[in-house]
Amino acid sequence: MNGIKSEFLVLLLMLWCMTLAPAAHAQTAEMFGTVTDSRGNAIAGASIREIGTAARSTISDSKGKFTLHVAPDAVLEIRHIGYKTQEVSVAGRNEVTVRLQEDVLWVDEVVVVGYGMQKKSSLTAAVTSTPVGEIRKQVAGNPASALQGFIPGVEVIQKGGEPGAEVKLLIRGAGTFGTTEPLYVIDGAISSNGLNSLNMADVASIELLKDGAAAAIYGSRAANGVVLVSTKQGRAGETLVEVSGSYSWQTPSKKLDFMNAGQWRQFINTVADNSGLERAPENVNPTASGVDTDWQDLYLRNAPVYNLNAGISGGGKHTTFHTSLGYFKQDGIVVQSGYEKYSARINSTFSKGVLDVAENVFVAHTSNRPAPSSRLMGLPTAPEKDEYGRYVSVGPEYNILSSGIENPIAHLYNEEIKDNATDVTGSLNLGLKLLKGLTYKLNLSGSYLNDRYYVHIPHYSTLWDESGKPVSGFGQSYTSLNESRSESFDYTIDNLLAYQNSFGGHTIDALLGTSWTREYYRTMSVSSDNHDLGGPDITGYNGPGTVGVREMNSALLSFFTRINYDYRNRYLLSASIRSDKSSKFAKGRRTGYFPSISAGWNLHGEDFFNVPWVSRLKIRGSYGQLGANFIDPYAFLSLAYGPVSAIFGDERVMGYITRLAEEKLTWERAVSSNVGVELGFFDNSLLLTADWFLRRNNDLLAPLAPLPSSGQTIVLNDGELPYFNTASVENKGLELSGEYRKTWGDFSLNVLANISFLKNKVLALGDGIQPIRGKDFSNKFNDRATITKPGLPIGSFWGYVVEGIDGKGDFIFQDNNGLDATGNLTGKPDGKVDENDKTVIGSPHPDFTYGINLSLAWKGWDLAAFFQGSHGNEIFCGAKYFYYFDYSTNCLADALNSWTPDNTGTTLPVAKTDNRNGGNSLPSTFYIEDGSYFRCKNLQIGYTFDSLLKNSFFKNVRIYAGVQNLFTVTRYPLYDPEVSADTLFDRGVDGQYLDAPTVNARVYTFGFNLTF
Question: CA-to-CA distance for 128 and 214, rounded, in angstroms?
Answer without folding.
Answer: 10
